[in-house]
Amino acid sequence: MLSVIITSFNEGGDVAATIASVRQNTSDCEIIVVDDGSTDGSCDQAGADKILRHDQRIGIAASRIDGIEAASGDCYAFLDAHQYPTEGCLNKCAEVAIQRQAIVCPCTRGPKDRVQGNGTIWTGHGSIMGQQPNGLFVGRWRNRQPRDSLSRCSMMIVPGYVIPKSIYHQVAWLPQLQQWGGSEPCITVRAFFTDVDILHLCGPIARHLFRGKTEDGGIVRPFSAPFSVTWRNHAHTARLCFDDATWQRYWWPGVFGKWGKREEEREFHTPEVIAQHSQFASYKQRSDEEFWRGLIGVDLPWSRKKTGGEVLRAG
């Protein structure tokens, strides 16, 4: 069985539309909706097999963790409450995910096909991991169709991906992640260091309602996404996955310390965080140096001369 886990907060009629799309196009599945504190009643009559409710909004990552605890499938598919998989999309991804013991993501398109200037339809064929100038993790879409139907990519930007139950513990979200921002980077970085492949399956499509932009360049959402939460989420991922020396030499002084005060650093050194860090280190298979030189494709940040505001990206 495939467990389809849908997280939602005030998504209106899109919740029912997403569930209807999954029902129509997916076989042998259970649908679990995690209502993360909605006030619009959108999840009440949506038709899920299971509905988990939060009295207050706790965030996407924590909601997905709750959804997994209620799931009974051999494979987990994660969707936002405004995504519409095409026929067989999630089943095909699940089949490959179990066979390859990997995270598998389908093609991504908007709700309607968008024809580009060259006459092709815009399609996201997976994405590539990079770093923003401020040091936070970022992904960029691969718009060119890969040569092979199954290819490696290095990051997920939006849900629609499928993870086998057997490897979930290696790439699971951190319970410290709050609200929105940093959930896909977390699972991506954990997958890299535990040597779990992220594969793109060309053909199946999960359509995604991309939000518009606000006047200040932000994204229109039914909830606020303060930067103070986003940088903390990224910081917890870095603290867990990278060595102590890298945290002390680069991540805190070079990135996160610019936004956090000295006393705020203590939250990354609690007994719980230290225990999680030690546990992750016990099955970490790749070095910190491989992250930059292998995944991102740049020199180590502490050996790099300052050149201004360049974006660090994989080649």
Write structural notes for this entry.
The protein has helices at residues 14-25, 60-69, 89-100, 168-171, 183-193, 227-241, 244-255, 271-282, 288-296; strands at residues 2-8, 29-36, 50-54, 75-80, 83-85, 103-109, 127-131, 137-141, 150-153, 162-164, 198-208, 312-313. The protein has 315 residues and is an alpha/beta fold. The chain contains 9 helices and 12 strands. Helix 1 (14-25) links the parallel strand 1 (2-8) and strand 2 (29-36). The strands form 3 sheets. A 5-stranded mixed beta sheet has the order 3-2-1-4-10, with helices on both faces. Strands 5, 6, 9 and 11 form a 4-stranded mixed beta sheet that branches. The longest helix is centred in the C-terminal third of the chain and has 15 residues, at 227-241.
